[in-house]
Write a structure and sequence with these properties.
By secondary structure, this protein is of the alpha+beta class. The chain has 2 domains: about 1-235, Rossmann fold (3-Layer(aba) Sandwich); about 240-365, no CATH class. About 25% of the residues lie in helices and about 35% in strands. The chain is globular, with a radius of gyration of 25 Å. Bound molecules: adenosine-5'-triphosphate and magnesium ion. Magnesium ion binds next to helix 1.
Amino acid sequence: MGLYLSNISHKFGSNEVLKNVNADIPSGQILCLLGPSGCGKTTLLRIAAGLEILQQGSVRISDDIVADTNIQIPAEKRGVGLMFQDFALFPHLNVRDNVAFGLTELSTEDANKRIDEVLERVNMLGQGDAFPHTLSGGQQQRVALARALAPKPAVMLLDEPFSGLDQNMRVQIREETLGILKTSGVATLMVTHNPEEALFMADQMMVMGPDGRILQQGRPNEIYAEPAHAYVAKFFGQANSVTGVASGGKIETPLGIIDVSNCQDGCEVEAIIRPAALILKIDGDETSDDKRGRGNFDFADGIPVEVISARSLGQNTFVRFRVKGADDDVPDFHCRQRGFFPEKPDSEVRALIRQKRIFIYHTEDSV
Ligand SMILES: Nc1ncnc2c1ncn2[C@@H]1O[C@H](COP(=O)(O)OP(=O)(O)OP(=O)(O)O)[C@@H](O)[C@H]1O
Ligand SMILES: [Mg+2]
């Protein structure tokens, strides 16, 4: 059981949007697909659903090939549940009738039983007679999920299903959805723009580059902790980037010397430094990390910097800074740090860097 995509490539005219995409999603697993706008994520879902004619490769659901260069099983015969961003419930049908939509093959009695079951599962059983416009965004989303699950699909295809919801609702609904998908045992392919959401939901993650190639695929922690490309490393929120030419296993950067011992002399190298790999120390002050006994940073002296702005994000402070005396073409850097509040504007501040947390890439591999 599950959804298996093999060697899928797709073009719109001369615009190649998918290149040799492979994905195996066994039942009960969720694969989250991430990538920049326009790289082909929705196209891949539409091909899997049968809404777009497959050009190259194959789609298998459980033991059946549903699309290859000879076969195209129509969408309604694939046993696929769909939930796209504009999940549009039918406005003239109440909640129960919306959910009943895909249950035409069941007797009225069986359909009613199934509607009760799925509405109960999404906690909407009490609102069966309500019309969509009287429901909140989160409630509508849950009805859409119930409608997609009602025919017991083997596969669910979700295209940015939570993007219309506000932050609190989004966290709640995605947690509920995760539970429902897991207990239903469907194979789920879900597109999201939100890396945090993918880390939360996914059994596997797949990151697509701007050219429609898969850059990396694997368990979420693996992708977060060992990004295979600079592009993937940068995908998880804002990161700092410095470049240099390797010499003697090191590059000189505005933030200090960075170890690139795996790179040959003369190689152009990009170092991606996530905000957590940088810490700022105010002269005479212990950093909060020092206080917790985790002052595990290199360059004990740090690099003198000038704070441009420090804004509280609740738990952390987002600090933008520049290296003192740096040329104009050296970019600003940033970090997130708990409890960083320089009291005096003229305080001496130094940036310390955690070498172990830096990701190093050859620039010729970049996308
Ligand atoms: N029916 C179509 N005809 C021609 N070009 C298309 C068609 N559908 C999509 N495209 C093009 O294919 C590319 C990929 O589109 P797609 O909708 O799959 O991207 P996406 O990764 O889902 O982007 P987003 O994150 O913005 O939703 C885009 O350049 C788009 O303009
Ligand atoms: Mg899309």
